[in-house]
Amino acid sequence: MRATELLFGKLLLFMEEYGILSKTAMKEIDMLNVSFYDLGTIEDQNLKFAVICTKYRGKWIFCRHKARSTWEIPGGHREAGEAISQTAARELTEETGAKSFSLHPLTVYCVESGQEKTYGMLFFAEVKALGELSVQSEIGEITLSDTLPDELTYPLIQPFLHTFALQSTKPFHSYVMGMDDEILSLAEKGFDINRDGENYTVTFPKILASEWERFVSKNLKYEYWNEYFADDQVVFLFHLKDGIKRYEVENYHHPEVLSLCEALCGCKFPSLKEMLLGNWFYRQAIEESLTNSF
User: What is the C-alpha to C-alpha distance for residues 127 and 265, in angstroms, rounded to an integer?
Assistant: First the structure.
């Protein structure tokens, strides 16, 4: 399904507000249109490019071509016979020196200019180990940054892709009880997992939420629950006698969920938010989220 005009407008407002697009670029945006499609809705043969929004040690990686003074997101043309995921892996390796990484498809994008439409797939990569760039590489150097560089090679296209990746990789947090060491296997898939006594703290990007729920549904002990959250949105998964029960909670308010938590742990909480704030890991994450919103 093609992204709606409303989503496109929200991306524009977001990028203008946070300085991702300059006012000059905003005036020129009518020259082309960038839109997004759900994975699997555009025929594979039409995907000509792979772009990989990439993080390493918490920062975004950007590349500078040897022949340019501007920066760009890693990516490039699909070669004959390649799967688009192979294109992404090859370009990421060639343009950043990445040696070990996890790679996740986010969306299909389309750049439309006049009568011409070009399709590509946008990926997110988490790099675990960086090596040296090949001497044959077209890339002169890479840089690590918290934000988009000011001087971009494709200023009317890549800010949209970067913004989509930002929204798709928003971090979720979970404090995990009632699971065994099998949880550590998720580290290879892009989950950040740390022990806290017999329990675990887990942070993962939004794009891995479905995988997290599958893992929890399979491994959560009976009469335990798990919650994961970002900002003021919380998802609760309870393992009850009739199986896994799932709730989505907005603004920390859901009387039925609060009652279930109290029944399972045999204690009372003033509210769901107060319950979460009683955990050091959640309290830290909520405080960081509030700080970053100003």
Answer: 39
